[in-house]
């Protein structure tokens, strides 16, 4: 891993507000790295309602959550933003002065960034895994119990139990099946919420004897020093039996938590970050907050508001990144300069 990544701006979160802000920053020649704890871009749109139609995106009478994110990603393609997924931003340290801000950002995956401005686009907070009610599970976390797959190699040649019935559980059952020693999928009922093609693929592997499917629950764990040796499986009223396993991946859904943002020295108003409505800057010069995470009189938690807020924040960010350059307002329809940046000239 690179020791420290230097960039103009770090955006915390990769939801719709963050994505459109990359576009506005890109037009101003500002380089961006985005960090999200999720494995993909799109925030709530991707995670909570990818297939639902949205009816209040300007210019789109209807578009699904996933469709909107695909379009935003296509729109920012010319600016080549760098995404860092599966990482929680844990620390934000102020290094510079109010006139010339600089920040150090750290993630729980050990990545460090320095930037001239930080935009917090953290929505309702970071999506974090819901934990199953298994006594003592915390002793095994990050050693042999994982709530997300960050490195597939962790699971090579291991007996792996995956718990859950949604897309994440089924996708990882299918993805890890070729490299794991044996996969056991555990779900509390024989009915899956995941995409039908994934469920069919899983059932075919079970029928071919290449995968185990057990209907019931994991109620306990055995092992030493955080290294799992088996999980206690209980089906209905039957006694629990031990399934040998060195890895357990429970997928019990996600919950949104404010998390470490509360420790960054930012003023908070009921877990929201107050900002001014000219620049969407927080009480710390150089740190901005846009989208669902911010607060100001009249705030509406709508995607279109996040787009507007990011556009105005970008103007002030430009002053920090290019203190000696004058910013001239230009339209994309008529500016050949902007069109060159977009690759359409
Ligand atoms: P989010 O989409 O919440 O994205 C924030 C991202 O930041 C998340 O991915 C999160 O994991 C990440 N994050 C937070 N903290 C950290 C951290 N410390 N480290 C790493 N990552 C972090 N809006 C509309 O305008 N129209 C609608 O019709 C509409 N329908 C909706 C339907 C539903 C069911 C829901 C739940 C919401 C709906 N919304 C709608 C609201 C809309 O989805 C939100 O306004 C929008 O997603 C906010 O975008 P955002 O980028 O600010 O935050």
From TrEMBL:
Would the keyword NAD turn up in this protein's UniProt record? no
Supply the alphabetized keyword list. FAD, Flavoprotein, NADP, Oxidoreductase
Molecular function GO labels:
ferredoxin-NADP+ reductase activity; flavin adenine dinucleotide binding; NADP binding
Q: FAD/NAD(P)-binding domain location, by residue?
A: 8-301
Does the keyword field hold Nucleotidyltransferase? no
Q: How does it assemble?
A: Homodimer.
Protein name, UniProt field: Ferredoxin--NADP reductase
């Amino acid at each position: 891993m690179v020791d420290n990544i230097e960039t103009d701006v770090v955006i915390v979160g990769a939801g719709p507000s963050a994505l459109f802000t990359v576009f506005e920053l890109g037009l101003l020649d500002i380089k961006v790295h985005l960090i999200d704890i999720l494995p993909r871009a799109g925030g709530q749109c991707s995670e909570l309602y990818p297939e639902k139609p949205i009816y209040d995106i300007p210019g789109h009478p209807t578009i699904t959550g996933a469709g909107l994110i695909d379009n935003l990603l296509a729109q920012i393609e010319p600016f080549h933003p760098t995404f860092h997924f599966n990482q929680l931003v844990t620390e934000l340290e102020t290094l510079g002065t109010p006139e010339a801000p600089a920040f150090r950002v750290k993630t729980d995956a050990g990545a460090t960034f320095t930037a001239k401005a930080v935009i917090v686009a953290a929505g309702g907070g970071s999506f974090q895994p819901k934990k199953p009610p298994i006594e003592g599970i915390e002793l095994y976390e990050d050693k042999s119990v994982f709530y997300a797959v960050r490195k597939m190699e962790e699971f090579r040649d291991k007996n792996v139990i995956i718990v859950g019935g949604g897309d994440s559980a089924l996708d990882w059952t299918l993805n890890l099946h070729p490299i794991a020693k044996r996969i056991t999928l555990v779900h509390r009922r024989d009915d899956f919420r995941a995409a039908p093609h994934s469920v069919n693929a899983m059932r075919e592997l079970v029928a071919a004897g290449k995968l185990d499917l057990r209907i019931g629950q994991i109620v306990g764990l055995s092992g030493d020093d955080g290294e799992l040796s088996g999980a206690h499986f209980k089906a209905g009223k039957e006694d629990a039996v031990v399934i040998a396993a060195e890895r357990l991946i429970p997928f019990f859904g996600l919950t949104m938590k404010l998390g470490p943002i509360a420790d960054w020295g930012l003023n908070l108003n009921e877990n929201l970050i107050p900002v001014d409505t000219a620049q969407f800057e927080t009480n710390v010069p150089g740190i901005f907050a846009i989208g669902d995470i911010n607060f100001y009189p009249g705030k509406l938690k709508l995607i279109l508001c996040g787009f507007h807020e990011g556009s105005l924040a970008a103007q002030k960010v430009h002053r920090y990144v290019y203190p000696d350059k004058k910013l001239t307002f230009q339209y994309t329809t008529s500016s050949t300069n902007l069109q060159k940046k977009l690759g359409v000239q």
